[in-house]
Amino acid sequence: MVSASSNQPREFFGQFLINMGHLTEDQLEKAFSTQAATRIFLGKILVMTGLVPEATVRGTLSHKFREMILDAFHWEEGQFVFEAADTAPEVAGLEVSVDLLDIHREGEFRETAWQAIRAVFPSGAVRLAVDERKLPERKPGSMDERIVSLIKEGLTIDGIALALHATDFFLYQRLYALYRLDAVKISDEPTVDETSIVVEDEEDTGVIGSETSSDEVLQAAQLFLDAGNIRDGEALARRAHEMAPSPRTVEFVKAAQEKLLVFLRKELAEPAKVPTLQVAPAHLKTLQLSAPERYLLSRIDGRRDVAAIVHVSPLQELDALKYFAGFVDAGLVTLTPR
């Protein structure tokens, strides 16, 4: 395998670089700005600017390719297309190749590993407890140090994964290793369900989601979109798809989400707007927030604008912008043009 791409943000090249400690979020955002201006591949930019050595870029790309394919091993549905050709397509960036047989062997190992891991950590929604007396020696700034710090902050496993920009297996295998040392376990404290501030009320209007058929909901969605109510129109489109999935609803949702993305970009990020917290950080810890919400709120520093925060986050752009819209609606955040 010589090239691979993904639409999952946590599988983007930049996310692996952050997770492995090769880049900071600020450095990645600057590299993205250079990429937008030059149209040069990110890996080449990092090497040219001296931010990351070429050997590290190649190694990280190889790791990214492996993790993307291994993640697909868990898919219950998917499509596979093979097109025979005498030569591989020319790669414009740095040349990297990965042996597929090695990936297959790793996939077989991980199937067994995941069974053991899930027996201990059945869900990413759980919080953990740490016994620092049983931890191996760790260096300041090391991955174990960062994991322990996030556990002590009370984050769920999902929240830790977002904060570290980590893939699931990377984090879970380390947590499992610490569990085997009796250093980490699921917290005995009562579980507090995480809720999201971004809640779309489907009953309040008497319209959203209340129709008797998917076709009627789609018709209502189209009316909302035509009237310029993009947010409710997209919510209706998703509701129709949930009621009766079909190729038609898939295309409708896709079109509605494309419109919503354009709308939210203009509302929240164009021109650049800097978010400011309207509540004390200590108060934020008392709120019931989802892991993605906690991650995004933790990135607000009064300096970075919304687009910069979203660009380097391990979240889909549309989802992240929806969360920011929810923060503004709830009065947690205000936006100031730069």
UniProtKB/TrEMBL annotation:
Residues 9-105 form the PatA-like N-terminal domain. Pfam families: DUF4388. PANTHER family: DOMAIN GTPASE-ACTIVATING PROTEIN, PUTATIVE-RELATED-RELATED, DUF4388 DOMAIN-CONTAINING PROTEIN. This is PatA-like N-terminal domain-containing protein. It comes from Pseudomyxococcus hansupus.
